[in-house]
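Checklist before submission:
- one chain only
- standard amino acids only
- sequence pasted in full

Submission:
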Amino acid sequence: MKKTKSQLKSEGFLCTDGSAGSEQYVKKLSPTRFLVYERDADVMSDIELKRYTDVELTEYISGYYKNLQEVIDTYGDDANMVIAECISETDLV
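Returned file contents:
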């Protein structure tokens, strides 16, 4: 059953994309582990970045960024969250 926006907020999720047809929420569990919820698809992904090599991470972000350093330079402390979102979005395609 699809979670409501208020449920997600009360569970500590942050809305990272509120676009109609692509609502996405992320909850940080640790510096390298994130829950990514694609609300419209009703899909929850548990992503642990330590499970991926730098080559794999670079492949996941390649549709959005040139390289990992660009993500780090652009998002700083939130870079891992953005990488987790890219993994989630790529796995849904």
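Reviewer check: The chain has one domain: 5-92.
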